[in-house]
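User: What would this chain look like folded?
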Amino acid sequence: MTASTPRRTAAKSRIAAVGAIAVAGTMLLTACGDQTKSGNNNSGSTKSSAAADLLPPEIKAKGVIKVGSDIAYPPVEFKDKSGKTVGIDPDLGAALGKELGVTFKFENGTFDTLITGLRSKRYDLAMSAMTDTKDRQEGIDSDTKKKVGEGVDFVDYFTAGVSIYTRKGDDQGIKTWADLCGKKIAVQRGTVSHDLAKSESKKCTGGKKIAMETFDNDLEAQTRLRSGGADAVSSDFPVAAYAVKTSGGGKDFQLVGEQVEAAPYGIAVAKGNDQLAKAVQAALDAIIKNGEYGKIIAKWGVEAGAVTEAKLNGGS
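Assistant: Here's the prediction, encoded as structure tokens.
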């Protein structure tokens, strides 16, 4: 959920991932990385790994890492039909927890409050398809460019761009962001899609701005589009592709144009928690090297966004 601060460098489309994610859509109901309603079903590990040795003593003692997440963003994180939390992030959290010898407990929160939750120590980490950007690292508001907080550090774990989708068979000529001038787009509040819509609207001519309707989560934006209340929705590519594949059995929506502005998703850590950030970075590197990361990414059909190393603050 690429949020608050637009990506600054456009990237080539990862259209090759569409087919992979489409295949993954048929696997989601049987995903093996499920969590209980109260949190991750990973019970942790008693082994001492290099990554576990880096954990802050107070987290080691608790045996739990509290993870803030907006659990309404399939296939990254969402509730399955039984109410369990599933998706790419929960599965990766379980693997990271095993490496660190602790349990990753996912706690639901509104996306645009997750960083505040880190600052208030409600969460130890935020893991919710959050884009690593310089503004967010430095605590800069993307609209005003004023400093509003201490910022956060990111351990980058995936790469994704932004896509547009419309009702199936009714694209109204929308292929690029410029085509949205004079039309209405539904987006999740505080995301890169929201920021991109605002910046692209400023480029529109002839008084035809992009009308925007914002929602607490992406599923609400999809409902608005489905009902005809918007002309298009924009969200991260994995989420858009999943919605196109699964909504109405694939009959509701269609992707239009190319994915743009690919950037890293990061696991957010409050500034000053260097030891925790290093531990998570080491654990991510470990599961990349031992193959667990690749298995999870392949299970969800999003190999095109895989990373080969855990970078700290690699966003721009």
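Confidence is low (pLDDT under 50) at residues 2-46. If you want, I can go into more detail on any region.
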